[in-house]
Every structure is written in structure tokens, then in C-alpha cells.
Amino acid sequence: MDRFTAAERELRGAAPHALLAAARGALVTYYAAVDVDLLMADYALTILQPVRAAPTSTDPLPIHSSPAGRAFGAQRVHTETDRRTGVLTAYLPISVRGDRVGVLSVRFPEEAYDLAAEPELAELAEVLGHEIFVAERDTDLYRQARRAERLTLAAEMQWELLPARSCSRPEYDIGGGLEPAYAIHGDNFDWTASGNHLTLTVTNGMGEGVEAALLTSLAVHALRNARRADLSLADQAFLGDQAVYGHYSGRAHLAALLLRFELATGEVEVIDAGSPKVWRLRARKVEPIPLEAQLPLGMFEDTVYTTQHLRLESGDRLLFVSDGVYDVLSPAGERYSDRALARAITSTRLLPPAQVPRAVLRELTTHRGSPEPEDDAMVVCLDWHGREPHQSPEEVADRP
Fold first, then answer.
1. Which residue segment(s) compose the domain that 117 sits in?
2. Model pTM?
3. Could you tell me the CA-to-CA distances from 60 to 12, 42, 56, 63 in Å, in that order?
4. How far apart are CA 357 and CA 167, in angstroms?
5. Number of domains in the chain
6. Would 396 be classed as within a structural domain?
7. Packing angle between helix 118-135 and helix 19-31, nearest 10 degrees?
8. For position 142, which CATH number holds?
9. Phi, psi of 238 (to 5 degrees)
10. Phi, psi of 219 (to 5 degrees)
11. In Å, what is the CA distance from 300 to each residue of 41, 238, 385?
12. What is the pLDDT of residues 61-119, one digit of tens each?
């Protein structure tokens, strides 16, 4: 048995809470490492925290100004050597199908580091990411390590609703972000993909705190229930509307944008139910996409929704923003969407979608002139690559 297979087997056989110990043992035994740390990205994507430490006693590393953060941001192995001690540290990014989880920090005696083994080390970090994803069903250890501070109850509910923070497929890359990360309550995004379609919903529930989170949770689960019954986009909106109205009788409602992308053609069905706004970057030109406004979910009984159609081109970037982004005022009274949002979309055009939401939210903080937002802010970024003509879903799945 080769060393990679042996190390992988140890990771896959480890107890959910013991993945770090298994990774450390395997890397020491088979790759001559001297120590290993597992660093998890926090909910706000600002720091990396060691799993081995309790959340109240961690020594976090900043994502934007540390070697570990460099590996996390670039999604490439990064190495640094301490000339005083002769120890080389390899920072291995951990992700699951494009969702960035954290970094594995592995220390070696400089003379023992095998550059030829770097692809194996990177692949082991990917295996570890998948094992963390499965282990989170049975332990809170990794979720606790993501917390720089305590989540509010509403934020706990909202983060549990999310599919991931980012996802990559040959046809598209997508990333989402929420602010304030530790106190979000009403904004949400959700996506799912099959071999032929991507369905994306972005929602903005009215109210504050737990009440807003409960409203959003009801709507998201109703939309998922309808989607998993293989109903049309219009029927998904109708049943989501019924669920919210049936519980609140019009006292509360939820703005939603529903989109269904045909992966082979770039055709998009859209329902704008009082929704967050959509902007498109195409050939360096930024512009809002006008949509046919319909009633928010739950405002009135038996609302009928209709779809409209768009077509994407390879290279298009879509940005979805909630009113907590769109309507934010500067100290001088300028709305963010007047000019600053277009500048932010242009200035972040070279970043991958996984990094765009955080970058836009940082620029939003500068625009409003205060660190604390007055309302939830949500940003979702989607890059459309499309599919080559006459290419089957199976061929796309097999693409390296």
C-alpha cells in the first residue's frame, strides 16, 4: 500500500471528533511532518482559528495578512521557512467542491520536505475537507472552531439554512456572503444543481431577530419542499407564498428572487417576488437587470406568479444584493446603488466569486462610514461559464 492510500485510509476511518489527530498521525508517519494544525475560517471570513483550541482561547490568524490566509485566498499550497529553526511550514487549503473551509498547517524539518509530494499533500487536505463535511453531522467541534464570537440565535438558524458559502462547477462558480455574520436574521441564499439545471433563490424576510429568522426558515423550507417535488418555478413561488400566508395571514412577508438556469444553454427562468436586486457585468459593462416586479411571498392569499426569461453569455457575472446593500446611505446621503455599487463590481471583477461578497461588503462598510450595519446585508456572486455545445452532463462531470 502506498503512503497516500495509507494516510487516506486513516482519515476516513477516524472518529468525527478525531480527524485532526488522525491527520497529524498520518502526516508524521508517512510524510515526516513534525506537527499539524487545522485552521477553520470563521463565519465572517476574517480569521482562521485552530480547531485544537477552545473558541474562547484561540490564537487566530488574519485571513488577509498571514501565510495561512494567503493559501486560503489563493487556494494554492503556500510554504514558508523559518531560517532560525530550519522548520518549513506548508499551508494546504481545505475546500469541498469549491466551498472554502480552512487551511491545514503542516510543519516539516526543511531538509525533509519533499516538493514532489506536494500534490499528495494537497489532495489529503481535500480528503480531510470532505471528512469534516461528513463529521459535522455528528460533532459540533468544527462549527465551534468557526466562531470568533457567539452567534445570536437568529444567526445560528440562518447559517444552518445555507447550502454552503461557495460552490464550483465547470458551468459556473458561485459565492455568497452575509453581514453581520454573527447577528444576521432575515437574509438568505440557497442553491441546488442537477446534471441539467441550477436553481438559485435569494430571500429577504421582513422583521428582526428570531422572528425574521423564523419567517425566512419557513419560506426556504417551503421553497425546497416544492423544488424537491419537481414543480415548476412558478409553482415553487406559489407554494412558498401559500406557506407564508397560511401562517402569517399577511402580517409578514418575504422578498424573494427565484432563478432556474439551464446549464446547457444559459437560458434562465426568473421570478422577481419583490426581490433583492440583480446586476450584471458583461464585457466590462456593469448594469442592473430590470425584472418584472411581482408581489412578495405571503403578502396576499393565492398570488399567481409568472416567469420571465433571460439568457446568459459565457463570461457573464451576476451580482445579487439585498436592500441592506442596495439602499445603504453614505454620511453625505448618497445611496450605495447610485454609483458605489457599480464601482465595487468593477473593482472586484478579477476576484473569484467566493471572494467577491466579502470584498463588496468591506467596500460597503467604507461607504456607510461605520463598522456596524443597520440592516442585514447579503451579496451573492455568480460567474457563468456555460457548457460546450453538444457536451453531455456526464462529460462535464468527468472534466478535470
1. 3-146
2. 0.91
3. 27, 10, 11, 9
4. 13
5. 2
6. no
7. 160
8. 3.30.450.40
9. -60, -45
10. -65, -45
11. 41, 11, 38
12. 999 999 999 999 999 999 999 999 999 999 999 999 999 999 999 999 999 999 999 99
